[in-house]
Amino acid sequence: MKEAKILGVSFSTLGFNATVSDLVARAEAGQRTHVVTANPEVVMIAKENAGFQSILDQAYVVPDGIGIVYAAKMLDKPLHERVTGVELVDALMQEANTQGWKVFLLGASPDVNRMAAARLEKDFPGAKIVGRRDGYFSADEEQLLINEINAASPDLLFVAMGVPRQEFWIAKHWSQLNTPIVIGIGGVFDVLAGTVKRAPVLWQKLHLEWLYRLLRQPSRWKRQLAIPRFVGAVLIEKWGKR
């Protein structure tokens, strides 16, 4: 797999369809893969947290965020297409629907987790939701949870705990998990449950989903501060190479 390094984070350069095909092949071969859907916020967390950076160094990182694509263009890196978490989940669930794959849903609130599972069962009846658990559990419950996941033997494990908690959790238990494809998907369960609406298609085409989310959820403004910091860091790297 070819990679493009953006501010120290190595991204897969595969386009969306090629990424889906690659992950399907990995799942069928039983090739265990930790997928991280990374946007500028994720990159900036990695710059400030060596432990998080080491997790990304071992993961299959895809560019979730148009800012990553723009940065790649500025830095002359061979990365040209977003691979968003919500679309990746949909594509893999379509494959699960066709192949009869087993899926485990971990994370979000109890209600959101339940509604997301109901939505997936309705839209992808050929897939098997073999287990689910919300993200509210104690450290003492983690081993029982790992045992439950392994007993269900899913082909796909979607972990929706938010960044960076989900990535740290996956990395912590990686040696125990037997699932081929494990993906940290942030707030995708909220979208599936209908508690958070995705930006309209026009906003998506204009690459303004981040602004739509900010207008809908003003409380996100602190998180959005990562964007100008990311742009500044990219410019410094670009100018530093001249």
TrEMBL record:
Keyword Cell cycle: no
UniProt EC number: 2.4.1.187
Key words, A-Z: Cell wall biogenesis/degradation, Glycosyltransferase, Teichoic acid biosynthesis, Transferase
InterPro entries tied to this protein: TagA_TarA, WecG_TagA_CpsF
Domain of life: Bacteria
Keyword Glycosyltransferase: yes
A molecular function GO annotation: N-acetylglucosaminyldiphosphoundecaprenol N-acetyl-beta-D-mannosaminyltransferase activity
Catalytic reactions on record: UDP-N-acetyl-alpha-D-mannosamine + N-acetyl-alpha-D-glucosaminyl-di-trans,octa-cis-undecaprenyl diphosphate = N-acetyl-beta-D-mannosaminyl-(1->4)-N-acetyl-alpha-D-glucosaminyl di-trans,octa-cis-undecaprenyl diphosphate + UDP + H(+)
Functional summary from the UniProt entry: Catalyzes the conversion of GlcNAc-PP-undecaprenol into ManNAc-GlcNAc-PP-undecaprenol, the first committed lipid intermediate in the de novo synthesis of teichoic acid.
Protein family per UniProt: Belongs to the glycosyltransferase 26 family. TagA/TarA subfamily.
Protein name in UniProt: N-acetylglucosaminyldiphosphoundecaprenol N-acetyl-beta-D-mannosaminyltransferase
Organism, scientific name: Brevibacillus fluminis
